[in-house]
Amino acid sequence: MDTPPYDLLGVGIGPFNLSLAALADREPGLSTLFCDTRPEFRWHHGMLVDGARMQVPFLADLVSLVDPTSPWSFLNYLREQERLFPFYFAERFQLPRREYDHYCRWAAERLAACRFGTEVTALHRAGGLFRAELTDTATGGRTEVLARNVVLGVGTGPVRPEAFAALDGHPLAWHSADHLDRRAALDGARDITVVGSGQSGAEVFLDLLRRRGGDGTRLRWLTRTRALAPMEYSKLGLEHFTPDYTRYFHALPAGVRDDLVAAQWQLHKAASAETLAEIHDHLYERTVGRPLDAVPVEITPGTAVTDARPGPCGGFELRCRHVDSAAEHLVRTDAVILATGYRAARPAALEPLAALIDWDEAGRYRVDLDHRVATLPELTGGLYVQNAELHTHGVGAPDLGLGAYRAAVILNSVAGRTVHRLPGRTAWTTFAPGGSTSTAPTATGLPRPQEWTRAAAASR
What we know:
Layout: E1 8-11, H1 15-24, E2 32-36, E3 53-57, H2 74-81, H3 84-90, E4 94-96, H4 97-110, E5 114-116, E6 118-126, E7 129-136, E8 142-147, E9 149-152, E10 156-158, E11 173-175, H5 179-182, E12 191-195, H6 199-212, E13 218-222, H7 243-250, H8 254-263, H9 265-268, H10 273-286, E14 297-300, E15 303-310, E16 316-322, E17 328-333, E18 335-338, E19 342-344, E20 382-385, H11 390-393, H12 403-415, H13 454-458
Helix pairs in contact: 1-12, 6-10
């Protein structure tokens, strides 16, 4: 390894690590490399259905909320695509999801630090550095690089509840993450069930209504939540997605944080009011001059699927329990689409370092305000995470609106100086009684990082 160590090695290239690559691009004193196993950038490819829109404004791009002058902004992308005037006349704050994906692809293809088709297979400690083993996924060739800091941005993986384990691998049962890739398999199904009440569930159900709503197919939507409540989108409610709230949340005891994340599902797991309205509008128009029950559609909240099995005569049998009454019933259906969310994944490359990480009682990362993972003193290099700290940083962790800010925090921490100036206060709301939840920037532009050791963790 004759190449000097990189200042920062990124594992995975989703929107968050892509944001970090974009914000670091104009800093000549920092050397960075970002690797992804896939041959090209892909973002929720299975959910790029027609008409699907982002749930955040276009300013939640890779850079604008930190550096709106960056050449990697969405507005500059529009300029390069000669689409500024069409976007101006569209008068839409939220982008089509397909356009956001195309924008990220545009940036990923042009950022020199992004290397696709390259898997980081293992991370090792090498003195005060990280030694990373890289594999070219096309040729199988192997190389090694050194890095002073590593940021894990491998994203989240689809969650398939245990109740559906018996359906794994079945051609007519899949997670919504694969919806577009496998939708054609539904052509022969006459009864289709969608499970899950979040944005993905709403978009899949709406897509099926548009495509299959007039051919007699029975469409069913089941959800454990007692109501199809919309995403909280009031202006003051959105202040939960500010750095001020992140700092407040991070300072709370771990048990309180866990309870809050569960209680705040409507901030980050619900469907948008617009999508729910489109579903209602579609059903309303289809029943003009007809009784409501003339349309073979079932929308049943407050219903948990406790077990799912292949049926004896084909299709599937779903055993369901009504949340309020505890009444049980059986649903027979030809196909099942699980819109059951995502969970942060631990990359296999991290295993050689696992014993040097200070995991919390639930086996999760302990993460400081700089998004640096707590490690034992022997591991002196900086290990950072993106979108794996919901339990320490709150509902803003998976939100694209905080992506650029978090990337700037990490970049400032890695550089040990203010690469990007960050605001001291970002919300009108004071989340902690008796004072402001904002924090005056330090010399690096952010709150000072916490020092972690296993002994300190054990003393809590």
